Amino acid sequence: MAFATNNDILKYVPTIFDHGVEDFTDELAMAEDDVKRYIETEWFNKHYTQGYDNLGRRSGLTFDATLLTESQWTRATVYYALYAFILPQLATWRPDGDAFVVQIEHYRNRYAEEIQAVLAKGVEYDFDDDGTVDQSEKVISRRDRLYR
Length: 148
Description:
By secondary structure, the protein is mostly helical. The protein has helices at 6-12, 25-48, 74-90, 99-121, and strands at residues 49-52, 58-60, 123-124, 138-139. It has a two-stranded antiparallel ribbon. A two-stranded antiparallel sheet has the order 3-4. Strand 1 (49-52) and strand 2 (58-60) form a beta hairpin. The radius of gyration is 18 Å and the shape is elongated. The relative contact order is 0.15. The model has no long low-confidence stretch (mean pLDDT 87).
């Protein structure tokens, strides 16, 4: 399954397919890859990687994106796809103004807010791979303290 589909985009921008493009599956897949990379580097590695050995190999758990709860990342994936891949295709980039360029900034901000909100609420990650995420598998990423 994917984090987001074309129908998910329609929930946020009902007129997105009125501009001559009929499918954004590729853009959603690229956005999903970028969101997964962010989750791995900014959440998983900070909580579950214990550093590197003398040969530069990571020690600790290995990230597996299939253990994430996909629905938790739908909104972030849609926002990312809109600002990074979809709206730049539709923009005319005229210096006198372009509604799509304004929307790019809006969805970039919404993505940043959404990803931080999900991390603050708690990432659902099925550590034991049993098909369900119980309360002990919801990991909150605290951002209110400086760690050194």
